[in-house]
Amino acid sequence: MMSTSLKPNWLTKPANCNLFDQKIWPKSMLRDFEGHTSIGGVSVGDLAAEFGTPLYVLDKQEFFDRANQIIAAFSDAANKYGTSAKIYYAGKAMLSTEVVRWVDQLGLYLDASSGGELSVALAGGIAPARVGLHGNNKAHSEIGRAVSSGLGVIVIDSEIEVERIASAAGAQDCVQPVRLRVNSGVHAHTHEYLATAREDQKFGIAISDVPGIVEKIRSHKHLQFLGLHSHIGSQIFAVEGFIEAAKRLVTLHAQLLVGGAIPELNLGGGFGVAYTEADSPMPIDEIAEQIVSAVASECSKLGIAVPVLAFEPGRVIVGPSGITIYNVGTTKDVLVGDSSEVRKYVSVDGGMSDNARPALYSADYSVSLVSRESSEEPVLVRVVGKHCESGDIVVRDAFLPEDVAPNDLVAVATTGAYCFSLASNYNYLARPAVVAVQDGKADLLVRAETELDLLSRDAKVSK
Q1: Which of 9, 49, 66, 432 is the most exposed place for a label (fewest CB within 10 A)?
Q2: Structural domains counted in the chain
């Protein structure tokens, strides 16, 4: 007997499995009168037939709309308080040369976290002056390339990097702008705003150590100190953590002004998105207004000007812009425990190799049958992958029509961020293609890997 008592409390049994919740799915995700689904005006079935499955699909219009909304929200809030905002797209969320071109067209800056991401950014044609480089362990080669490329900023993550960057800039006789990443002591994932400035983590500098390191930065003629940087976490729904971190950094910023001008303050990213019906992220314009207002208020109390404010959104732009299409291979009704309760397992042709987040973070997602419409009763399902791991779960808890069957196509929502980026070849599965859709057209951004691609790296393969 099928049962819904196994479902988590947050999950609601839908009256109709054929509808797409616009809080979760791209606005262009539509089902026609015959039950066929399209995204960006392109049939999901046609996408699967042309590019194969699994398949990452990015709705380009959704990406642009979300980016423009964020630009407007933070710019309007900053202008209201007599300053401006710089928006860096966090490339770690999802990056390809075409996505770099989108970022460039939108007028965004771009944040790279490694030499590889920097390589993609530069290959995409964005001006190096609009790129920043992060990382807690930047190689000398990465620093050298960043300096020689004319990167807009390098974020210093430890004291030892001061000398490394100064040396690279000195060798090239140029001035390299830098920021200093600070541990604010705010733990946004718990909402416990600890007073200590020392966190047990690999990123950043304790608040108490910042003045001495800034003095060292300023002692080098080949370095320009742009300001402080903070990042308190990811997938954050409440604004209080951002505000508390901002207050602490503004206080520190004011103290450091005694030693010279500091044009900017970077408050990072981490804004949350809706993966399931249980998620309720705050509207971005409200987040922007509250953060900037808090910064302006602190600056007023301290009698200083509001600096240029920088932010680094990634997931909030690209996450909801993407879906992943899978083909169903098998279904299996599994009796759970000693009861008569049954969970339907739906196995798809991908899994933890194309979406590692459920295995890494127990992340929840939403799924829908997209190859056809169904009037059958919704039943509790667990969508799983084809890897040799019991933890290979794509969607832990969801409802699909009872007649979901082999060769059906299902789509998982909000996979634009950290799915392609974290993809692997576990069990020697080839990584999926990435396709952008807009106005009824599909554009291949990254081709799917083949087994020949995987074998090409094996130095001992028979020729």
Answers
A1: 9
A2: 2
